[in-house]
Amino acid sequence: MSVGYQQLIEATIQHLEDLKAQGARFINLSPETLEGFASPLGQPSGGTADVSGRPQAVSPPTQSAPRSSPVAEASASSAPAPLNREAKETAMAGLRARAMVCQKCPQLAASRKNVVFGVGDIHSPLMFVGEAPGADEDERGEPFVGKAGQLLTKIVQTMGFTRDTVYIANILKCRPDTPGQAVGNRKPTAGEMKTCLPYLLAQLDIIQPKVIVALGATAVEGLLGETGGITRLRGHWREFRGVPVMPTYHPAYLLRNEALSEKRKVWEDMLQVLQLLGRPVGEKQRNYFLKA
Ligand code: SF4
After folding, report:
1. Torsions phi, psi for 47 (to 5 deg)
2. pLDDT (tens digit, 9 = 90+) per residue, 174-207?
3. What is the pLDDT of residues 58-100, one digit of tens each?
4. Does domain 3-286 have CATH number 3.40.470.10?
5. Whose CA is nearest to atom 2 of ligand 1?
6. Which of 40, 77, 90, 213 has its CA 20 to 30 Å from the CA of residue 231?
7. CA dihedral defined by 212, 236, 173, 121, rounded to 10 degrees?
8. How far is the CA of 77 from the centre of ligand 1 (A)?
């Protein structure tokens, strides 16, 4: 048994004991969760287990993800039971330790410099989800640290948060390999996203954000199983396991297309997020990127 897997089991036991102390007498486990206990994530398996071992419950949708993709199927149903701060931190530390030694994708594990697990406040109401680490992120072991990441940081700050007060993660925790290529990144495959998705599901179960922002078409596809094009999908609320999801453009798109109108679209999406979170929005803030 790997150290990471052992830590996750210990965190899970601790969580179950906390639930018992709070009066819970039984929990519902999804088939994915049971499969997860049978197949330690540190070993190659290609499975889609829920790695958190967390209890599941159902919440009402805004517009649910279609179940047409393997990724969406792996994410079916359910919001987790609430966790106190200590239980969250214990569970996240165990999950992180497990991800850091993950070998489920042998070719990615061999080529990566770092596992890019996630960064920020695990108690935040707001979580940003991207597709996969690029070269900069692989080098630093932190998501969204390249030019696109710097733009995301500006967006986060303009919303009135900081990188430390939101949580940022990718669907894929390892950089997609680019054999024979010294530079450049590639889009993760559906199979890679499916294999790694249980880590993100577990992060969501632990963090329990009030809102998720899905950054770009690949993140939307990986999270929601929707491939209808980010231009059509952005700005319209979706739902993932009971959590409202706002699809928007990836910051890299805004670097490629500097038109004010595109920045305004992303900002309008973020205004919707702020509104759902009940955050105050000033007049100046509301009018960013509008033509004079
Ligand atoms: S991409 Fe995810 S599942 Fe694959 S090796 Fe990395 S951490 Fe493990």
Report:
1. -80, 180
2. 999 988 776 778 999 999 999 999 999 999 999 9
3. 333 455 544 444 344 444 455 677 889 999 999 999 999 999 9
4. yes
5. 196
6. 77
7. -20
8. 23
